């Protein structure tokens, strides 16, 4: 049954106003910048803050204190009990709910087996790697067969390589989990890879939601555009011309009318020392304001009308002898520009 949450929390002058619906088996990612209200939402769902109404089918959790809510939580730093074995950690929630020790241990061992750690049942948390501790935390959260699994930045404490592996493992476990999952993260990759649907929270409100594909293709705020690495503008279209709100005009290939968002990838932008002649492109002059080396490309930040990000090859950087303050010509094909209604 669908889980419905209505979260209304006031903390000093911050207001969280978030409605969520999560289907069984669905993984929803709550993504947002620092201070957007993600932790507040999580705490309200868990019953640790007042202002969270949760309903699953006919039953409501409003009168349930935190420890009675059918919830499993994986925290960013796992919070495993250091003095307990992996098995006792996983059995903890069952024991707290009154399950007898022998039965709790059987369920906990099966949980450890499912995350591939049965042979570590007796290990103490400090002897486990970061990835293993994360799996124990997941097994612990799932041991009580919760209705709602809350993942709070579950990969944040891992180094980049471990993170990659654990992310795909976690994805597999989530696929097998029949309950509702809410993943709280500020890492867009976690959200893109793990979630069926992404809800973007800014300043306590939902600014956009959709499948990872929809969010990547059609960002609706500067924050989302930045996350997915696209040049992003607001403008007003008239046929194949878009007048941008912040200055500048772009020619697009597909005619459109009225207020639109305009996006294109930095890789679609070319830079030239002189005005490129005779092509059906958008060209304008811009000044280099920043140069940043990425893994395989160089990201150039250009001030102009409009300002733009360009990804160019290291060879081009060398050829142009790029320096901050240089004036260049920006060139962009109309066919690379994507517009959608605001
Ligand atoms: N105990 C508190 N009392 C009053 N205001 C608080 C309290 N805790 C958090 N806030 C405020 O609530 C807002 C949301 O904070 P929250 O921690 O939920 O954001 P977040 O999205 O989880 O951010 P981060 O990614 O940095 O963890 C912030 O403006 C914060 O200042």
UniProtKB/TrEMBL annotation:
Organism ancestry: Bacteria, Bacillati, Actinomycetota, Actinomycetes, Pseudonocardiales
A GO molecular-function descriptor: ATP binding
Keyword list, A-Z: ATP-binding, Molybdenum, Nucleotide-binding, Transport
Source species: Lentzea indica
Coiled coil residues, start to end: none
Mop domain segment(s): 277-341
Domain (ABC transporter): residue spans on this chain: 9-228
Record-given protein name: ABC transporter ATP-binding protein
